[in-house]
Amino acid sequence: MGSTAPVTNVIDVSGQAAVAGDRDTIGGWPVLDADQPWPVCDCGERMALYFQVEIPAGVPHFGGDQLLVFQCPVESDACYPSETQLPPEFWDHPAENDHAFWRILLQRNGVAAATADPYLRPHRLTVHEFEDVDHRNDSLPLQDFKVGGAAFWVQAAEHFRCACGTDLVFLCQIPESFEFSAYLHDLSVDYPALDDGLLLGNIVYVLACPAHCHPAAAYPVCQN
Prior knowledge:
Structural class: mainly beta
Order of helices and strands: EEEEEEEEEEHEE
Strand content: 25-35%
Mean pLDDT: 92
Radius of gyration: 16 Å
Shape: globular
């Protein structure tokens, strides 16, 4: 890799089951700060841990943070905010949704929860540095599941301002129709939102506050 090449960190699913203490996982044991409870949806359901990764040290603003992405197992929707200025406590009261059925956290001093997520079978992820260049058009960034680097916007780039006044910056990209449902436990109860995927299976861009004004100051932006 040339020293001047743009870089990102590609996230791949490994062939290994995750165990307690793993920090890069689909499902598994969320690595949460001591004062951070497991997120609960307004509907009363405890949220499912779709994935978590320890952000590599080289990612500006967020290196060393633990990124955790949760969503309610029974409710799903998409986020298409129309206002660039996000409202106060947007993580609890998002601009274009009746309530927050998702929660994105950035934690610094987390320990593994005592129990694993009950919805998704714990599976290890690998995170490795890679050139952030799309192989079909080398003027564009990668379309992959990744953290850091630049967003591959399938429509026009979108920009939002945190409630604290700081511009959110791109942190993570989840490809369209990523098959989280492939890792579902064989549950006796049907959870259709999990089958619909994260935020209805749209390509999801996680934008986060570089000022770290709140552990949940991160917003999912959807395109398709």
